[in-house]
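Thread: "does anyone have the structure for this chain?"

Original post by V.I.:
We have the sequence but no experimental structure in hand. Need at least a predicted one for the grant figures.
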Amino acid sequence: MKEIAIIWLCSAAAVSLAGFINAYADKKAAKARRARTPEKRFVLYAALGGAAGVLAGFRLFRHKTRHGGLVARVCAAGALNAALFAAAMYLLFTNK
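Reply from O.Q.:
Generated one for you, tokens below.
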């Protein structure tokens, strides 16, 4: 079970980084009036474990913060991510 926890934590970190980079790239595209990243892609990143990176990108780059529905969906995925993170930590640091 510890292996599964480690795999989930590593994949969540990678997806979080991808979501953060995508928020930056989308903000840059918005300023240059180029093609944009669909909002459902940010929700997908969040659902796959990257809610922390997506939200950090939104806050740091002041991007999509007025889109209440999007931020709410990402936060809901973040709550699920937090529960999975707690479960992974429990598996890693208990002797069970």
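V.I.: this helps a lot. Residues 2-93 form one domain.
O.Q.: and The chain has a mean pLDDT of 91.
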